[in-house]
Amino acid sequence: MDDYGVPLGESERAFRDEVRAFLDRAMVDFADRRTRSSLDGMREWQRRLHEAGLATVGWPVEFGGRAASAVEQLVFATEMARAGAPEPINRSAINQLGPTIIQWGTPEQQAYSLPRILSGEDVWCQGFSEPDAGSDLASLRTRAVVDGDDLVVNGQKIWTSKAHYANRIYILVRTDPDAPKHDGITYLLVDLHSPGIDIRPIRQIAGSAEFSEVFFSDVRVPLANVVGPMHQGWRVANSTLGYERVGQSRTHRIERRLGMVVRLAAETSVDGVPRIADPRVRTRLVEFAARVEALRFIASRATAAGVLGRAPGPEASLAKLLTSEVDQEMATFGLDLAGRAGVLVTGSPGAAKGGAVAQGYLVMRAATLGAGTSEIQRNVIGEKLLGLPRSDG
Ligand SMILES: Cc1cc2nc3c(=O)[nH]c(=O)nc-3n(C[C@H](O)[C@H](O)[C@H](O)COP(=O)(O)OP(=O)(O)OC[C@H]3O[C@@H](n4cnc5c(N)ncnc54)[C@H](O)[C@@H]3O)c2cc1C
């Protein structure tokens, strides 16, 4: 079984050995946490993965992937989590935009964009949400009008993660304002350095500014950059959102956080008694461990749908909902375990885990909002998996 919960065949064992050998070599340079989480570190990590043919294992072979089976993907995710490997800088494009271009893009878009996603040459951000279009994304109002061989874009996006360092953005624009709201939307690839784009970072509760407002004023984008049919971008966007939920449900992060709360329970004590000796603490830890273990399988089933050539279905909502909620609960439990030292942020003397406990708690507030809120995932699960009546009547 080898810890994966499933027996490995010969080729899967060979794949595991290849991944382990790569990690043994490559992780030597990423032992330091700051290197791992810095932009340069993430960029360099993606370069190493790409060189080793491991930037994406799930994509089809003809587009630079390995067409990895669900079990191989589980092996890959488990080994990466175990080694504490960093995120590649373009993880979201590898998980979301790449598969969307594979599914909907023209051969020219595929030939140009996919290798640049894998090498990290292009770093992408997602411009879907607008001030009045979040959960109800189809209400978006950013306009694009055809002018010669271009579309001319005007409007505003918000909560655009990574816009402050990305060089490309994929956006949804309204191209037919007279059509019913789901039918007049187009999906567009845009150079973020185009004239007329203004990026204004938004500071978050944890202190950093990882997303931005992005304003478009008469930005010209070639019609050749439309992904999928004109006015049918809603269907294309739904592919991206499905892949995004699968990506959000990867268990990398929750496995790491589980390790952190177990260590915290072992290292902290009350009246000289380690927290981990308290049966209530042990019960919570065992519950978390069971949920994390179950999620590894739910996530690999959602991933497998993509490998089998099916777009991710409602199981992606289930995986995203459960992963974000257990992650948030573990971060809150970490704060409880650490006591007063837990609320001290990085830079404060005595901060638990150098401030990582407080940081984890604050950052995790967003987990149940980004990539669709928990309420929206519950609506999808209710309607599509349980067959309940639609929430809007
Ligand atoms: C960390 C983070 C990163 C993000 N990154 C990006 C990004 O890169 N690109 C991008 O485009 N967007 C991004 N977003 C935006 C994200 O997709 C939206 O925040 C999310 O879709 C919710 O939209 P909203 O914020 O407008 O909230 P609203 O839609 O206004 O929702 C407000 C509240 O009402 C509830 N609600 C709304 N409709 C319903 C309903 N039908 N049934 C039940 N409850 C409902 C919601 O659950 C929520 O609690 C990011 C968000 C976060 C937190």
How are the SSEs placed, and which strands pair?
Layout: H1 10-26, H2 33-37, H3 39-51, H4 70-83, H5 91-104, H6 107-119, E1 124-127, E2 143-147, E3 150-161, E4 168-174, E5 185-191, E6 197-202, E7 211-222, E8 226-227, H7 233-248, H8 252-267, E9 269-270, E10 273-274, H9 279-307, H10 315-338, H11 356-364, H12 374-385
Parallel strand pairs: 1-4
Antiparallel strand pairs: 2-3, 3-7, 4-5, 5-8, 6-7, 9-10
Helix pairs in contact: 1-4, 4-8, 4-9, 5-6, 5-7, 7-10, 8-9, 8-10, 9-10, 10-11, 10-12
The structure holds flavin-adenine dinucleotide.
Flavin-adenine dinucleotide is lined by residues 125-129, 134-135, 159-161, 211, 366, 369-370, 372-373, 375-376, 379, 391.
Give the helix/strand class.
alpha+beta
Residue share in β-strands: 15-25%
Number of helices: 12
Helix % is 40-55%
Termini Cα gap: 47 Å
CATH class of the largest domain: Mainly Alpha
Principal-axis shape equals globular
Q: How many strands, what sense, and barrel or not for the largest sheet?
A: 4 strands, mixed
Say how many strands there are: 10
Low-confidence stretches: none
The CATH architecture of the largest domain? Up-down Bundle
Rg, rounded, reads 22 Å
CATH homologous superfamily label of the largest domain? Butyryl-CoA Dehydrogenase, subunit A, domain 3
Q: Sketch the topology as an H/E string, one letter per element.
A: HHHHHHEEEEEEEEHHEEHHHH
**Count of structural domains:** 3
Order of strands, widest sheet: 1-4-5-8
Small molecules held by this entry:
flavin-adenine dinucleotide
